[in-house]
């Protein structure tokens, strides 16, 4: 049963300096978080947890944090205002649940090894504890994506008839033992597809129907390395998603087609320092092109902390993750 959203008004008084706690799986890259948090005013990391003691020690020493442990209970007994959970392993649900039992504010990376039923459990716990959870679907925080959504909502390009997204990378299976295991739940769908589903539902609204094909085109491992889906939105227009771990020189973009024009977003997924490019092409007008270099982690942290401090309704939330995982599970039924 899906738990309905409840507006929560918390009366929380934050100290002048926000104390962050970082809990991460030893295989998760978190240095980008520490680099970005240093740019956020009134914030500092005071405590670190990892399931690997050496990894916790290494990242703590690298970033000048005195408290670190591989004991989650000890970590949760430390005085922190916000917990950042970086974990895409099978431990995500258990760790998130324990954190929500003791802390009011949780920022976590997008889950991969989780079910919609477990997300519903986390929603129920968060509501019982008056806790807030932000999910780092990082591409939503890109200002040019936000601008594209504003143009769609204002019907600047007229009635939408299709939105498509492609996200392809070169990812060798032997780079990750997680990828090679069926038990992990990690797949090109739950990794790259997860992000595309979220982006399309953010831009176009709820997905009504979906038809998908997945395959092992190159890497003969338990998980598919390619996925393509055709979908229909509640608002009666269409879209498609294609993702893979196969491309050394991919073309990654989002295309939004309307009756009076089109919107193209490029380089949104590029991890290098290439600028994101937004192209707006309206009937009867000159093409407009905007370029912006984005530090997604910095923007995500800045917006998340602002929402926590102002006690505003937060997004992306567990409810957004739940909608995405309902779609993911439907796709898995079709391609299994």
Short précis:
With 336 residues, the protein is an alpha/beta fold.
List the helices and strands and how they pair.
Elements: E1 18-24, H1 31-37, E2 43-50, H2 53-63, E3 67-69, H3 72-76, E4 82-86, H4 92-102, E5 105-109, H5 116-128, E6 132-136, H6 143-153, E7 160-168, H7 188-204, E8 207-215, E9 226-233, E10 238-244, E11 253-258, E12 261-266, E13 276-282, E14 288-292, H8 296-310, H9 318-335
Parallel strand pairs: 1-2, 1-4, 2-3, 4-5, 5-6, 7-10
Antiparallel strand pairs: 7-11, 8-9, 9-10, 11-12, 12-13, 13-14
Describe the structure.
This protein is α/β, with parallel strands linked by helices. It has two domains: 18-138 and 300-317, NAD(P)-binding Rossmann-like Domain (Rossmann fold); 143-293, Dihydrodipicolinate Reductase, domain 2. Helix content is 32%, strand content 27%. It is built from nine helices and 14 strands. It has helices at 31-37, 53-63, 72-76, 92-102, 116-128, 143-153, 188-204, 296-310, 318-335; strands at residues 18-24, 43-50, 67-69, 82-86, 105-109, 132-136, 160-168, 207-215, 226-233, 238-244, 253-258, 261-266, 276-282, 288-292. Strand 1, helix 1 and strand 2 form a beta-alpha-beta unit. Helix 4 (92-102) packs parallel to helix 5, helix 5 (116-128) packs antiparallel against helix 9 (318-335) and helix 7 crosses helix 9. The longest helix has 18 residues, at 318-335.
């Amino acid at each position: 049963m899906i738990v309905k959203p409840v507006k929560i008004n918390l009366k929380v008084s934050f100290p002048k300096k926000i104390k962050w706690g970082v809990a991460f799986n030893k295989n998760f890259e978190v240095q980008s978080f520490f680099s970005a948090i240093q740019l956020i005013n009134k914030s500092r990391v005071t405590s670190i947890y990892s399931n690997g003691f050496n990894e916790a020690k290494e990242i703590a020493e690298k970033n000048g944090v005195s408290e670190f442990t591989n004991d989650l209970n000890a970590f949760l007994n430390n005085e922190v205002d916000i917990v950042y959970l970086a974990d895409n392993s099978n431990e995500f649900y258990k760790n998130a649940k324990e954190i929500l039992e003791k802390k009011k504010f949780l920022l976590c990376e997008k889950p991969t090894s989780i079910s919609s039923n477990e997300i519903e459990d986390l929603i129920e716990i968060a509501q019982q504890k008056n806790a807030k959870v932000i999910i780092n679907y990082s591409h939503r925080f890109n200002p040019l994506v936000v601008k594209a959504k504003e143009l769609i909502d204002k019907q600047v390009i007229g009635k939408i008839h299709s939105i498509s997204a492609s996200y392809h990378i070169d990812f060798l299976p032997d780079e990750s033992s997680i990828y090679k295991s069926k038990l992990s739940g990690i797949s090109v769908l739950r990794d790259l597809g997860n992000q595309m589903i979220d982006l399309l539902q953010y831009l176009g609204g709820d997905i009504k129907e979906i038809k998908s094909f997945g395959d092992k085109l190159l890497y003969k491992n338990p998980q598919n390395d390619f996925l393509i889906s055709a979908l229909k939105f509640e608002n009666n227009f269409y879209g498609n998603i294609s993702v893979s771990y196969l491309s050394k020189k991919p073309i990654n973009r989002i295309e939004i087609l309307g009756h009076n024009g089109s919107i193209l977003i490029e380089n949104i997924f590029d991890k290098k320092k290439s600028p994101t490019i937004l192209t707006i092409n309206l009937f009867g007008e000159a093409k407009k092109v905007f370029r912006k270099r984005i530090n997604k982690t910095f923007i995500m942290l800045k917006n998340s902390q602002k929402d926590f401090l102002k006690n505003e309704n937060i997004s992306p939330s567990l409810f957004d993750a739940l909608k995405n995982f309902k779609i993911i599970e439907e796709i898995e039924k079709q391609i299994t």
